[in-house]
C-alpha cells in the first residue's frame, strides 16, 4: 500500500491524520495495545503475512475498530473473505477516490457504536444496582405481564415471606394463588380483576407457607400502560404485616376486654347493652341487667395481697361465665364489680333464676395458697323496659338495687323498685366526700418519673390523690374517684389537686430543677364538663409555676367522645404552654389517625401491658408497638407500673425514655418526695 498516497488522499478529504505504520503482526499488536485508534487501513500483501491475518488480530484485540483493506489487486474471492471476516470495506490502490468517504462513514459508524456500547454499559450498571437494591429490600416487588398474567419479575425477599424461592415462582413451579389462604382466595381473585380495570389495588390477605405458618400480606399494585394506552403490566409491592396485625388485634382486644379476667370490659358491655336494647325495642322483648359486687373482696385483697385478689377475681369470673348462655354477656367493670347482661328473658323471674344459679356457682370456696376463701356476691337486677329504656338508666338502677342487696345482708339478689331510695350507701359516700372536701381530708402523694437512659434521674412526679378517712384510714382513689366523677365532685376535687400540685411543683422547680415536671390527672368530667382551660390558667398564675413544668394526663377514651371539641380544647390547653399526656395508653382506641390530630406530648403505656412483659409476648409486642407509635408521632413515651429490672431492660431496649413504677418509687407524701429530690435519684 502506498502510505504516502493514502495519507495524501485523507488530508485532501479534510482529515488531520495522526498515524502509525506497522509492518509486522507483533508491531501491530503492540500498537493496538498502546492506545485507542480510530481506524486500521491495511494492505493485503505484507512482508510476513497477508491482510486477512491483520484483520484477525484487529478483530481479536479491538472488535469494533473499523478495518479497510487497500490493495493493488485482490481478487473478488479474497475481498468476499475479508468482508466476511469483518472488514468494513476494501478499495483498490488505483482507485482511492472513495477513501475519504469510506473513512468518514466508518468513523461515524464506530462513534455511534461506541456511544451505544457506553449507553448499554450504563444501563447494565444501573440494572445491577437496581437488582442489588431489590435483593436487599424486605418488601416483595413483583411484576405480572398483561394480559397473559405471567409473572415476569419477583425479587428474592419473596423467599423469606412465602417460604418459597423467587425462582420457583418464576419458573412456574409454584402457583401463588394456591398459597393464598383458602378463605381469602376468592376475594384476592376479585381484587386482582378489579385492579386491571380500576388501575390500582391495595389489599390485605393471608398466605399459608409450606411449613404451615400463616402470614398477613399487605399488597399494593398498579397497572402499567404502554404508549397506546394498552395495559401491559401489573407492578406491585407486598409487605409482611403479620406482626403489626397481631399487635393491632391485641390493642383491639385490650380496648374491649378486661386484661385480668379476659371478660368484656365496660366499653364492650355498653356496646352490647345498646345493641340488645335496640334489638329488644324491635322485637318487643324483655331483658335484664345484673350488677354484681363481691362481698368481702377488699378484705381478701388487703390481707392476702393483690395477687390473691386477682386470682379470686379470675376464678369467680370463670364460674360466672360458665353459668350463663352464650348469648349472655358477663363483663367486669373494674375492681370487684361485674355486670351480666341477659338479653333473652321472657319474664323477670327468669333473671331471678339465672342470678340464683350464679350465686350458687360462686358459693364453693376458692382455694388460694392453701386457704379456702369464701366469697359471695350481692346482685342487683334491672329489667328492660320496665326499669329503664337506656343503657345509663338500666345500669344505674341495677347498681342501686345491688346496694340494697348489700344492705340486706349480702349474698342476696334485689330487683329494682321504682320508688327505692337510690342506694343509700352511695348517698352516704357522696355526703362523706363533700365533708372530706370541706374538712381537707384529701392529701396528695407523689410518684417519681425517671429518665431511664440517664441513671434513673428524677425528671418529674405524678400527683396522686389520697383520702385520709377518719375511720377507714387512707382510701385509694380507685374507691372514690368514680363516684366523685359521677356526682360532679371531681370538679372541685380536681381543682384542689391542681392547686396543691402546682404549688408543690413551683417549690421543687425553684429549689431543685427548673425543668422538673409535675403530672396531674384530669378526669373526663373536668375535661368535658368544666372550664378546664380557665382553671389551669388560673392555678398556674396563682402558684407562679411555669406552664412547661405542668403536665396534664388525660385518658384516651375521654378524648374520643367528641373529637372536634377535643381538638379545640387540647389546642387551648397547649396554647397555655402545658404538656399533654395520654394516660393508660393502649387500653382505649389507640388510633394513630386520631392521635395525629391531637397536640399530644407524651403517651403513657398502661401498667397492665408492662406487668406482663416477661410472661406474655403479646404484651411485650404491644409495648413495642406503642413505643413505635410514639416514635412515629415524634413524642415521648412513659412506661407506667415498672416493677422489675427485666421490665426496665426490655422497655429501655425498645427505646422507652421515661419510666414510672414501684421499681423507682411508690407514691409518697411531699416531704418524702422532697427527700428523694435532695438525694438526686429515685
Ligand atoms: N401495681 C403497681 N401500681 C403502680 C405502680 N406504679 C404506680 N402504680 C399505681 O398506678 C396508678 C397510676 O396512676 P393512674 O394510671 O393515673 O391511675 C390513677 C388515676 O386514674 C386516678 N387518680 C389518682 N389521683 C387522681 C387525681 O388527682 N385526679 C383524678 N382525676 N384521678 C386520679 O386513680 C388511679 C389510681 O391511682 P393510684 O391508686 O394512686 O395508683 C397509681 C399508682 O399508685 C407499680 O409499679 N405497680
From TrEMBL:
Compartment(s) where it occurs, according to its Swiss-Prot or TrEMBL record: Cell inner membrane
Entry-annotated residues carrying 4-aspartylphosphate: 43
CDD domains the record matches: EAL, GGDEF, PAS, REC
GO molecular function ontology, one term from the record: cyclic-guanylate-specific phosphodiesterase activity
Superkingdom of origin organism: Bacteria
GO BP terms: cellular response to nitric oxide; phosphorelay signal transduction system
Residues covered by the PAC domain: 201-253
Pfam families found in the cross-reference section: EAL, GGDEF, PAS_3, Response_reg
UniProt-listed Gene3D superfamilies: 3.30.70.270, 3.40.50.2300, EAL domain (3.20.20.450), PAS domain (3.30.450.20)
Domain GGDEF span(s) in chain numbering: 285-418
Domain PAS stretches: 126-199
Keyword S-adenosyl-L-methionine assigned: no
Topology class, membrane: Multi-pass membrane protein
Family annotation (InterPro entries): Biofilm_reg_signaling, CheY-like_superfamily, EAL_dom, EAL_sf, GGDEF_dom, Nucleotide_cyclase, PAC, PAS
Chain ranges of the EAL domain: 426-681
Gene Ontology cellular component annotations, sorted alphabetically: plasma membrane
Domain Response regulatory: 1-108
Catalytic activity reported: 3',3'-c-di-GMP + H2O = 5'-phosphoguanylyl(3'->5')guanosine + H(+)
UniProt keyword list: Cell inner membrane, Cell membrane, Membrane, Nucleotide-binding, Phosphoprotein, Repeat, Transferase, Transmembrane, Transmembrane helix
Protein known as: Response regulator receiver modulated diguanylate cyclase/phosphodiesterase with PAS/PAC sensor
Source organism: Methyloversatilis universalis (strain ATCC BAA-1314 / DSM 25237 / JCM 13912 / CCUG 52030 / FAM5)
